Amino acid sequence: MKLAICPGSFDPVTNGHVDIIKRAALLFDHIIVAVSVNSGKKPLFTEKERVELLKSVLKPFNNVSVDSFEGLTVNYTAQKNAQAIIRGLRAISDFENEFQMALTNKKLQPKVETVFMMAQAQWSFLSSSVVKEVASFGGCITDLVPPLIEKRLKEKFSALHPGKN
Ligand code: ADP
After folding, report:
1. How do the residues of the chain divide into helix, strand and coil, expressed in percent and rounded to 5?
2. Closest CA to 48 of 11, 85, 22
3. Which of 9, 17, 36, 132 is catalytic?
4. What is the pLDDT of residue 163?
5. Looking at the DSSP assignment, which residues form a beta bridge with residue 102?
6. Residue located nearest, by CA, to atom 16 of ligand 1
7. Pocket lining: 20 vs ligand 1, CB cutoff 6 Å
8. What distance in angstroms lies between residue 91's CA and the mean position of ligand 1's atoms?
9. How sure is the predictor about 38, in pLDDT bands with cuts at 50, 70 and 90?
10. Nearest C-alpha to atom 18 of ligand 1 is from which residue?
11. Residue 72 · residue 108 · CB < 8 Å
12. CATH number of 3-124: 3.30.1240.10, 3.40.50.620, 2.40.50.180, 3.40.228.10?
């Protein structure tokens, strides 16, 4: 069975993530979308919330499951017996960091391949940070995230800044 891991922060999942996951699910038998829990980052959504949101949004894809992990992605990938790590590439700015990470991972686990998928032009500007920035100022994010995420971002920011928007 060809199994791949799609790791990321997913804070929160955007239409760009969904597009990459959907396309990867056509190439592999099974995809595990894995929320990486990085204690150095201060996410807007908790690990539990991010997993729950991904599960709801990805429900239509029957060969995609959702999990979370701590530590090195490459170790998690090997532990799951997956052959590949899927990463999306948006702009040249993504490249340097991704290249460094892919080569390091190859050194650590030579059997694991990193597979890069180019972002669709439509989503190539899109990131969770941009979405959070726009939503925090009450801007329209309707076309950028699934409807459930739009709703949850609005709730999150109205709880953080009551009386705003
Ligand atoms: P990380 O902090 O690991 O980069 P992200 O949640 O930002 O986590 O991204 C997870 C994966 O999804 C990464 O491979 C990233 O390149 C990819 N990705 C993020 N946004 C997009 C997008 N708009 N189009 C395509 N891929 C994307």
Report:
1. 45, 20, 35
2. 11
3. 17
4. 64
5. none
6. 88
7. yes
8. 11
9. confident
10. 88
11. yes
12. 3.40.50.620
- Give the pLDDT score at 94: 87
* Residue 88 alpha carbon to ligand 1 centre in Å: 6
**Banded model confidence at residue 165, pLDDT cuts 50, 70, 90:** low
Query: How far apart are the C-alpha atoms of 37 and 1, rounded to whole Å?
Result: 27
The 10s digit of each residue's pLDDT in 55-91 is 999 999 999 999 999 999 999 999 999 999 999 999 8
Which residue, chain included where needed, has tokens 């309707």? 142
Q: Is 119 in the pocket of ligand 1 (CB under 6 A)?
A: yes
Of the listed 39, 41, 93, 107, which one is catalytic?
41
Ligand 1 near 16 CB (within 6 A): yes
